[in-house]
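subagent[fold] <- orchestrator: predict structure for attached chain, return C-alpha cells only, no commentary.
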Amino acid sequence: MPERILLIEDDQELGSQIVESLKKAGFEPTWWRTGRHVEAQQLPGLVLIILDLMLPQTYGLDILKELRSTGAEVPVLVLSARNDTADKVRALKLGADDYMTKPFWPEELVERVRARVRRPAMQRGDALEIGKLRIDLASRGVSVEGGAIELTRVEFDLLAALARRPGVAVTRGWLVEHVLDPDREGNERTLDVHVSRLRKKLGAGVRVETVWGIGYRLGTEAP
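subagent[fold] -> orchestrator:
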C-alpha cells in the first residue's frame, strides 16, 4: 500500500508538480490548497506532512505549532520562499523536521521525502532500537551493543524522548518542560548537565548531538 503524504500548498502550479512527483515516486498524496488545522482523526496513516508557510486562511507555522502542542509526531517538511536563518530556526524550534526553500527541483523534494519517511528507529512492542542502542520502555532498561547502561530517571526519560524522534532536533525548552523535575529547579543549564552525564555513560557508540540554537538530537548514523 502506498505511503500517504499530506501536502498543504496554495500555489496551483507548484502543488500540481509536487503531487505528480510524489505519485511517480510511489506515494499517495492528499493536497490541501488552503491552510487549515489538521484534525486528530486525519493523522493515522500519514507518514509525512509537506507544509507551505504562506497560506490563505491559516499561517503555516500556526498549523505546525498546533500539531506539536497536541503531541502529534508525524514528520513535517516545511516549504518556504524565505531563506532567512531566523525563519528556519523558528520552524525547527516549533517542531519541523526539515526545511526547504523555494524554488527547488521536484527530484530534490522527493529525495528529502524519502529520507524523512525512512524509519531509523525500529520499534518492537515496547522497545526502540537505533543503531547500537536499545531502549526497553517497559522495563526502563538501556543497552549499547548488548551491554547494560545504568541511567537515572531523568537520563532515561531524556534519552527516550530523543529516541522517539531519532535524527530530529528536540528543543531545550521542550525537554526542560517534559523531562526535568519542575520541583527541583529544572532549567536549561540543568538539562545541559544531564546531557553531559548521559553522553559519558553511553560512550562513543551513541551520539547525542547538540543542535546550536535549538536543542539536542539523537544521531542515527554510526560514529
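orchestrator: received. Logging for downstream: The chain has two domains: 4-117, 122-218. The first strand starts at residue 4 and ends at 8.
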